[in-house]
Amino acid sequence: MRLSAPIFRLKRHARLLSRSTGNPLHQALDHVARDEGFRSWSHLAAAAREGAGPGARVLNGLVPGDLVLLGARPGQGKTLLALEMVAEAAVAGRQAFFFTLDYTERDVGERMMAPGVAQAIASGRIVIDTSDEICADHVVDRLHDAPHGTLAVIDYLQLLDQRRQTPELGRQVDVLKTFARTAGTIIVTISQIDRAFDAQEQRLPTVADVRLPNPIDLKLFTWTCFLHDGEIRLEAVA
């Protein structure tokens, strides 16, 4: 069954309903789910996960204001997962941005083969930014007028302070965190994982395996998403 709106919008509607009626949030969520034709919110969420690809499943776990660190070793599909999230957001009618310091616009377009993506790029719902000026301030400036719930992916975290004139990486992450929270944007930063990560000792990387040539307070992120050998784990940052 197709939902009338993306899950994040349904959640927002439930929160507003809870405030206006004074009922608990779980009751408002169930009410919204019944309007969508499901028995309860848990039934709706399970149905959404069952038919969704990896990008949609990760995206459905996020809400506006989230700052996400998406990390994996090379060749494990982190960029592909991020592009799937961009495609899912755009096809659902949301604005999506892909900022990359690593790929050309043609490279990105060729990797985004999901139905409806070409139309979304042509209409401007997907914006691919390959500027050499990409940094936190550049991202915030491009997203300044973007609607609530916009998804932005940055490829990738460790390149944001490669130019001498940009602030240190920790300050840039703080800027992104503040903007995501105040603007209601979801920002996903693709991250490198240190070569010392050993898949024979642990199935998936952790925050301890994130490559940090310059210090960052990883608690600024609301979620981490690590993947390796086809397994994906999305976890809230404590």
TrEMBL record:
Keywords: ATP-binding, Helicase, Hydrolase, Nucleotide-binding. One of its GO terms (biological process) is DNA replication. Residues 58-114, 121-211 form the SF4 helicase domain. GO terms for cellular component: cytosol. It comes from the Bacteria. GO terms for molecular function: ATP binding; DNA helicase activity. InterPro entries: DNA_helicase_DnaB-like_C, P-loop_NTPase. Pfam families: DnaB_C. NCBIfam families: PRK05973.1. This is Replicative DNA helicase.
